[in-house]
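FORM 7B: Structural annotation worksheet

SECTION A. Query
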Amino acid sequence: MVLKELQNIFHIELDAIYGKHEVDSFFYLCTEHYLSIPRIQLTLKPGLAITKSETDTFFKVIEHLKQQKPIQYLLGETEFFGLRFKVNDSVLIPRQETEELVDLIIRSVTLSTVKKSLNILDIGTGSGCIAISLAKNLPNAKIYALDISKEALKVAKQNADLNNVEINFIEASILDETCHSALDAESTFDVIVSNPPYVRNLEKQEIQPNVLDNEPHLALFVEDDNPLLFYKAITKFALNKLNDKGNLYFEINQYLGEDTKQLLVDANFENVELLKDLNGNDRMLKGIKI
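SECTION B. Predicted structure
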C-alpha cells in the first residue's frame, strides 16, 4: 500500500475522535517508529509503498487508537525534554507541564549554586523522566529517585540505562515513615522535587478517556477529602532531609495552588512562589528551606 493512501485511512477512521492535526501526528510517529521513515521523506516521496505485513501493523494501531489507547503505550516509548523514554501502563506518560518543572530546576540550579556537586531527590519518579532529565543536564549532581511501584521502577531503570545516566533508585512510599531509613541515614538533599498524585476523584470527569482508562490511577488520583496528602508528607520529609537553603519543587493541581502554597508558608519555607505553566494554569510551586 502507498503510504499516502494509508495516511488518508488514518484520517477517515480517526479524525472524528482526535482531530486532523493529532491524527497526522500519530501517523508520522508510526512511520518513524515502525518504518524508520522521517516525515520529510514522505513529503519528498509521496509514492512510497510498504509491504502487506507493515500495512497490517498500521491497521492494528488504528484499531487500538479507535479504542483510545495512548499512542505512547502502543509504541512503547515517548520523548521528554529531548530524551527518549520507554513507557507502559505501569507509568504515567510524561507531559509538557513536567518538562517546564524540569527546566525551572535546571535554570535555578545553574544560576544559583556555588557547590560543585548536589544531592537531588525525585519523589514518585514513575518513568524516571524528571530524575533522568536532571541527571543528563546536571552532570555534577547525584540523583536519587523514589517510587512505591516495583513495576514503575523497572521502567525507570530501563530509561536510566537507555539515557546513560546513573540514578540511585529506592522502592518506598513517602507516606510511610520507614522511607526515611530506605535512604542513606546520612543523606540530605539540596533539591527535592515531586510530581505526586494530585487529581481529585471529583475531577475525573475532566480527564480524557485515553488517560482515565489506561494510565495508572495510583499515580493520578487522591481522595477528595485529603487532596494534599502527598504534599503534606513530602513537606514534612523535606523539613528533615532538605539542607538549609535547599529548594523544594512541586508540580501541583491547578485548582489547589493557594492551598498547596500555604503548606510551605506554614512550614516556614521562604521565597515561596506559585508559578504558572504555558497554558496559564497554576502548575508549579517552589520554596527554600530556612
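SECTION C. Observations
The chain has two domains: 3-67, 81-289. The chain has a mean pLDDT of 94.

SECTION D. Sign-off
Analyst initials: ____
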